[in-house]
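Backbone-to-sequence.
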């Protein structure tokens, strides 16, 4: 299943995923199923309208789009005889529907009517529960309770497989626990929009920096002592100093890592095609642009550039 646009509440469905994506998911929130086909002109008019409505009702109702040509057996089972056909599901059952392209106002009214038919404002409750669950997961992460955070984020993803906040949160859990391969798997599932977030960029940079250090066998903290000893005899060995910066960063000695790269720049700004400055910028991304260590390291860099 893939996200069909930037919303967590609009997905491409299939016959195989119908039970989980529609029947089971509608126990938690109302679902609209849009049966469409690539050759259908009215579908091209209706689908963007439904997507707009879903976006405006963010968190209260979900859209699952089913390609008729690829899921003909499912369409037959659902009694779909023409496209577009939209069927509303609440509590695991179809409750309403319409055929043909409708204007925005009527689609909005249909969606609101579906939400209202859900017991006790199901969509609103689900959204509130989701926010609370995310808060609990992030709090667990803050207190380094990785197992608890992993469990909560994973539970959210059982209900919303494409929830960017939960995917990024789970990836962060794995990064903090230094399980980088699993972290990368979660980041690979984040939507295009989610990939632009500061937290995604930070985690992606952390994983990349870890992989770089691992390839050079620089993940062991004791390696730092060896590199420092080597620099005492040859302080202008930029590659050794660069490697030391990677080790220090990997072991969370952030400012010291920045200082090593800045020292390379002080000695030879052009080394390795300005590699020290570029790596320092990667550090900033991985630490977070507004983090304390980034702000402090930026001041050190400014002191060098404007001295």
């Amino acid at each position: 299943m893939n996200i069909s646009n930037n919303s967590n509440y609009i997905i491409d469905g299939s016959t195989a995923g119908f039970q989980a994506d529609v029947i089971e998911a509608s126990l938690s929130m109302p679902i609209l199923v849009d049966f469409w086909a690539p050759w259908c002109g009215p579908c091209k008019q209706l689908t963007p309208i439904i997507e707009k409505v879903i976006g405006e009702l963010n968190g209260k109702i979900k859209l699952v789009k089913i390609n008729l040509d690829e899921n003909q057996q499912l369409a037959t089972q659902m009694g779909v005889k023409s496209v577009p056909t939209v069927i509303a599901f609440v509590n695991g059952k179809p409750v309403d529907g319409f055929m043909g392209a409708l204007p925005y106002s009527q689609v909005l009214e249909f969606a609101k009517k579906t939400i209202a038919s859900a017991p006790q404002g199901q969509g609103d409750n689900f959204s509130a529960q989701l926010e609370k669950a995310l808060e609990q997961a992030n709090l667990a992460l803050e207190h380094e309770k990785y197992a608890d955070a992993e469990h909560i984020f994973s539970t959210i993803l059982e209900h919303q497989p494409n929830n960017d906040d939960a995917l990024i949160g789970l990836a962060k859990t794995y990064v903090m626990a230094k399980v980088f391969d699993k972290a990368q798997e979660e980041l690979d599932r984040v939507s295009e929009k989610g990939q632009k977030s500061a937290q995604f960029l930070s985690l992606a940079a952390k994983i990349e920096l870890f992989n770089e250090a691992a390839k050079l066998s620089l993940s062991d903290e004791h390696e730092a002592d060896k590199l420092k000893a080597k620099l005492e005899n040859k302080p202008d060995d930029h590659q050794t100093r660069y490697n030391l910066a990677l080790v220090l960063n990997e072991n969370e000695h952030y400012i010291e890592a920045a200082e090593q790269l800045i020292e390379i720049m002080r000695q030879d700004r052009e080394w390795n095609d300005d590699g020290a400055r570029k790596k320092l910028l990667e550090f900033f991304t991985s630490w977070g642009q507004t983090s304390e260590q980034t702000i402090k390291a930026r001041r050190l860099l400014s002191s060098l550039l404007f001295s």
